[in-house]
Amino acid sequence: MDTKKIGAFLKLLRKERRLTQEQLAENFCVSGRSVSRWETGTNLPDLSILIEIAEFYDVEVKEILDGERRSGIMDQETKETLSKVADYSKLEKEKAVKAGSIAFGLTFSFCAAVIVIQLIVTGKLAVVAGETIVLLVGGAVYIGAMVYHGVWEMWPGFKSTLWTDALVGAGCAAVFSVAFAVCCIRLGISASQAVHSVVLFFIGVAAASFAVLRILAYCNRKRKAGHMG
Question: Are the CB atoms for 90 and 151 separated by under 8 Å?
Fold first, then answer.
């Protein structure tokens, strides 16, 4: 499959309709950058969008994939079959993403719980330092890969908003603040100093968690827009 030839053909079809990349992008609810990537052969449209493009230009999907006109238009049976294939592919992808998100969430939560318990029992940060670093690095790599492919979701049904991200950040901060408070008590820090330190710790972790979640949501939206191309 010659992606450059396909891109050139898509560009030709667009110019025949006297449309700009931005106008075409608006018609298919994608970014102008996505259309540009289609036409340069850097990326190809998803199957569902490819069917819509074929219908829009009155050409066959096969003609687009060949990068040149043949004859006739796509028959109804072919369109229905391709639409079902596109829906099936999308469903399978969503199932895989959900399964991966659930597995990651359970594993991460279990490991974090073990670290917190060790921290409470021993009262020594040094004991869990190595485990914490490994957990954070592993989590960052996994999330980074998911975001790169535009499929990151914290858990099925989760919608990243300012409110939900703030709530999740506060929840994470609260859990680790309890463990930090126990450490402060075990280290013999005075009550006033412990409260002050725990409050600052809570604010710092909550703010950092919120910022990370917001960045992840932004990057995920950008990658999704790009992968629609």
Answer: no
